[in-house]
Amino acid sequence: MGNIGEIFQLRHNVPSKMYTIFMDSLLKTVRNQISFCIVKAYTHLKLKDATRMLHFTNDVETVHFANEKKWVMRDHVFNFDTVESDYPEMKYENVIDKTMAYAHELENI
C-alpha cells in the first residue's frame, strides 16, 4: 500500500475547506486505481480485505462501491472472473492535466 494510506489520512487534515473538493476528487481517483489493480491481480477477494485495501471505514461503504463497479459478491467474497472484460481503462493524462490545472488555479488564489 505504500504511502497511499497517507493520502486518505490527509483528507481529514486539509489546511482549508477549499482543498476538500480537490481531496475528494483525488481520493476517488486513487480508489478507482486501486480497484482497477484489484481486478487485475485477484480472481477472488474477501470483503474485509477489499475494505482494507480500498481504505473504507466499513464493509457497507465497500459494498456500495463494489455495486457501482458491478463486482459480484457471494458469501462475503468478491469474484472478479467476469469483471475484468467490462472494466474501463483510466485516462491518466486527463486526470493529471485536470489536477495540475486545479493546482495552478489554487496557486493563483
Automatic annotation (TrEMBL):
Source species: Intoshia linei
GO cellular component: cytosol; nucleus; proteasome regulatory particle, lid subcomplex
The name this protein goes by in its record: CSN8/PSMD8/EIF3K domain-containing protein
Pfam families with a match to the protein in the record: CSN8_PSD8_EIF3K
Residue span(s) of domain CSN8/PSMD8/EIF3K: 6-77
One GO biological process term: proteasome-mediated ubiquitin-dependent protein catabolic process
Keywords: Proteasome
